[in-house]
Amino acid sequence: MQTMNRELHQSKQFLMEHDHFLVVSHVQPDGDAVSSTLAVGWLLSCLGKNYVMVNEGPIPKRMGYLWQADQIHDLSVNPLDRKFEHVICVDCADFKRVGKTKDWFEEGAKLLNIDHHPTNDAFGTVNLVVPDAAATAEILYDFVTYMGLELNKEVATALYTGLLTDTGGFRYSSTSPKVMEIASRLLEYGVDGPALSELLLEQMTLPQLRLLTRALNGLQLSEDGLIAWVSVSDEDLQATGASHEDMEGIVNYPRNIQGVETGLLFKVIDEQAVKVSMRSAGKVDVALVAKHFGGGGHVRAAGARIEGTLDTIVPQVLEQVRLQL
Ligand code: AMP
Ligand code: MN
Ligand code: MN
Predict the structure, then answer these.
(1) Could you identify the atom of ligand 1 that is nearest to the CA of residue 97?
(2) CB-ligand 1 contact for 305 (6 Å cutoff)
(3) Which CATH number does the domain housing residue 33 bear?
(4) How far apart are CA 24 and CA 36, in angstroms?
(5) What is the number of domains present in the chain?
């Protein structure tokens, strides 16, 4: 806890001593990445600081209800006309995760790295990294409290969104008593918990359901039934009208099969690369497998981008998973 206090202090100094921040999260941002970006933006606005929130690509449409979600620049459409000397990275396990946003970092830029991945390599000038936290939003709740700021419904909704999505609806093993305590406090600010669960965890678009059906049609299982996997290509997206964000959640299906220890989703990015998402029932540390391929994540949920084609990558990943079974 003392280490955490030192990191909180250093992070506070970072904000107080500088101005004109760039706030970035990881490529293909999830609920925690978007919410954490907005929570940092809110914090900076409370301090009267200038800031720009960005991502390499678009923010999932589903998250449009979040306060100032439309203020996060999609750099693939709206490039900025200046670079930044002070950058705040949220929910990024390593520097690579910031993607093309790095083109807007001044050379030698100072970074504040706020994250909860155990594989985080402390790439920041200041690192507020708490591997025990269920979400970056949990760390930001502590940070806002440490800064002595009073939350409002808008930022509480963002923080709740981060907690809700990264814990799979308060179900994963990361759902600590502290997470429930924070969620309870956030609800006191008027957050509509059931509506967020419905929107973010229950509802599917028709193309998303069609994509899921198509992916499950190609489900494969190892002979011993311990590993299950599916793959999705651009062809599948085109045939169903689904988008990249519609792939989220598919990986849970192979993992949910009784007896399966590791579920995998292979997303073909292009002819040169595949993104693999991994989920573990507990036995296999998928963060280790991801790390082996240059990615990262958590013990039970991790990912990596691997150069190559499905034919070569699938057997390599299966082999690495098998080493731990
Ligand atoms: P995903 O499979 O994309 O839902 O990601 C599962 C977890 O692994 C999340 O916590 C991600 O932030 C993390 N992760 C995914 N891809 C990578 C990567 N290429 N490098 C580091 N961490 C990753
Ligand atoms: Mn994330
Ligand atoms: Mn996260």
Answers:
(1) 20
(2) yes
(3) 3.90.1640.10
(4) 9
(5) 2
* Per-residue model confidence as pLDDT tens digits over 40-89: 999 999 999 999 999 999 999 999 999 999 999 999 999 999 999 999 99
| Sign of the torsion angle spanned by Cα atoms 122, 79, 159, 256 | negative
Question: Do 238 and 195 share a domain, yes or no?
Answer: no
| 139 and 261 share one domain | no
153 and 238 within one domain: no
**Pocket test residue of 24, 25, 26 for ligand 1, highest count of atoms within 8 A of CB:** 26
Model confidence pLDDT, tens digit, residues 11-33: 999 999 999 999 999 999 999 99
What are the distances in angstroms from CA 299 to CA 86, 231, 279?
31, 22, 8
Same domain, 84 and 196: yes
Q: Which atom of ligand 1 is nearest to the CA of 278?
A: 2
CB-CB contact of 119 with 93 (8 Å): yes
Output the domain CATH number for residue 318: 3.10.310.30
Q: Are 272 and 238 in contact (CB under 8 A)?
A: no
